[in-house]
């Protein structure tokens, strides 16, 4: 057997959300991967149908058209942008350019499962700072966890899987407390769904903080998870570093074209995100009225802190042809069609009657 790196033993593999079980007589729903349950915009599907391109050729490695449009849209320079195969590749690249066996990475926990994976793979010491009881980042504890060896901090707003969004003022204070030599990655994969007042908008912080990088994606609000397009926004020196770490020609021509069309229909994307956010608020409120302790939900998902009852709740959903994401200490439910969420509400009510009587 070949000898593999010892670092591989220090973190678990990424576990994708499961598909739902087929149950006769019931429509099945996948609420386990935070996908957009609405199809991409018609204009995006048209672009994809028309945009044959020439697959014998490599795509534009610099994603010039997409970056130009993003720059105009976000009010940054094209040199502040890197396009990657989903925000996932950006996370890997960010870790690559900051971390190795001598460094420490600080991130909240529970949070996105790729954080242990990318930082662990780089060989960094992982400092997982527990969330507060209400599912929010403990920024004071995170700042206190920074040492001479810290090279990377990851923040996630809204936090996957618990839901709360960071506030602008607290992130400003946090950045002021963290040494500028530490790269701070603000993962905004779900920013389009955040509606709470004062939610952090990373773009407004970039000018004052050259050590800040934003992670964004077309996978969630744009509904293009299958095309694998994400982007990073940051200081040109950091972007130049990232460009050395990303895979050349990773984002296909078709994916770049689809993302570009989706961007050009920004208002429609944001309007659909607002619809999903509205359904999310109703769903979270309905769960709270049943007695559930649901944290602030600002993404396209809701967290149920079920503790050791997580398996039992997941099983109850599986029996009703619904796939949810079980994290062991709680269950995350992605916002899907009303019919799916109504069924989850029934399951949740029965579950409370059975377990909390
Ligand atoms: C989904 C997600 C991403 C990135 O997904 P990609 O499909 O790779 O763009 C990044 N961060 C968080 C927190 C996510 O939930």
UniProtKB/TrEMBL annotation:
Q: Which residues carry this modification: N6-(pyridoxal phosphate)lysine?
A: 220
Keyword Amino-acid biosynthesis among record annotations: yes
| Enzymatic reactions | L-histidinol phosphate + 2-oxoglutarate = 3-(imidazol-4-yl)-2-oxopropyl phosphate + L-glutamate
Q: What class of enzyme is it?
A: transferase
- Identify the domain of life: Bacteria
Q: Name one Pfam family in it.
A: Aminotran_1_2
For this protein, the record's InterPro entries field holds:
Aminotransferase_I/II_large, ArAT, HisP_aminotrans, HistidinolP_aminotransfase, PyrdxlP-dep_Trfase, PyrdxlP-dep_Trfase_major, PyrdxlP-dep_Trfase_small
EC annotation? Answer: 2.6.1.9
What's in the keyword line of the UniProt record? Answer: Amino-acid biosynthesis, Aminotransferase, Histidine biosynthesis, Pyridoxal phosphate, Transferase
Q: In which pathway does it act?
A: Amino-acid biosynthesis; L-histidine biosynthesis; L-histidine from 5-phospho-alpha-D-ribose 1-diphosphate: step 7/9
- What residues does the Aminotransferase class I/classII large domain cover? 29-346
Please give the cofactor(s) recorded in the UniProt entry for this protein: pyridoxal 5'-phosphate
- Does the record bear Membrane in its keywords? no
Assembly, in brief, is: Homodimer.
Give the family per the record.
Answer: Belongs to the class-II pyridoxal-phosphate-dependent aminotransferase family. Histidinol-phosphate aminotransferase subfamily.
Q: What is this protein called?
A: Histidinol-phosphate aminotransferase
Tell me what gene encodes this: hisC_1
């Amino acid at each position: 057997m070949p000898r593999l790196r010892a670092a591989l033993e220090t973190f678990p593999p990424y576990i994708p959300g499961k598909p739902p079980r087929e149950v006769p007589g019931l429509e099945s729903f996948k609420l386990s991967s935070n996908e957009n349950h609405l199809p991409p915009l018609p204009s995006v599907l048209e672009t994809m149908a028309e945009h044959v391109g020439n697959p014998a050729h490599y795509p534009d490695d610099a994603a010039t058209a997409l970056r130009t449009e993003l720059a105009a849209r976000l009010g940054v320079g094209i040199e502040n942008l890197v396009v990657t195969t989903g925000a996932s590749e950006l996370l890997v690249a960010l870790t690559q350019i900051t971390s190795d066996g001598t460094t420490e990475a600080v991130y909240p926990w529970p949070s996105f499962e790729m954080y242990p994976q990318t930082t662990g793979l780089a060989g960094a010491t992982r400092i997982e700072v527990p969330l507060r009881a209400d599912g929010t980042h403990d920024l004071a504890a995170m700042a206190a966890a920074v040492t001479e060896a810290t090279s990377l901090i990851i923040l996630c707003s809204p936090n996957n899987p618990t839901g709360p969004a960071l506030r602008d003022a607290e992130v400003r204070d946090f950045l002021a407390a963290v040494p500028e030599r530490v790269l701070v990655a603000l993962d905004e994969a779900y920013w389009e769904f955040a509606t709470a007042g004062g939610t952090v908008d990373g773009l407004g912080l970039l000018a004052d903080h050259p050590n800040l990088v934003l992670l964004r994606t077309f996978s969630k609000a744009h509904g293009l998870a299958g095309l694998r397009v994400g982007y990073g926004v940051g200081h040109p020196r950091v972007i130049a570093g990232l460009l050395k770490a990303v895979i050349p020609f990773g984002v296909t021509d078709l994916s770049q074209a689809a993302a570009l069309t989706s961007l050009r229909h920004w208002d429609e994307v944001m309007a659909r995100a607002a619809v999903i956010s509205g359904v999310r608020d109703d769903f979270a409120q309905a769960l709270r009225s049943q007695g559930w302790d649901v944290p602030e939900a600002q993404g396209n998902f809701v967290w149920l802190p079920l503790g050791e009852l997580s398996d039992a709740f997941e099983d109850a959903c599986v029996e009703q042809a619904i796939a949810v994401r079980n994290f062991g200490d709680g269950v995350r439910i992605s916002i899907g069609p009303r019919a799916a969420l109504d069924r989850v509400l029934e399951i949740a009510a029965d579950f409370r009657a059975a377990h909390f009587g």
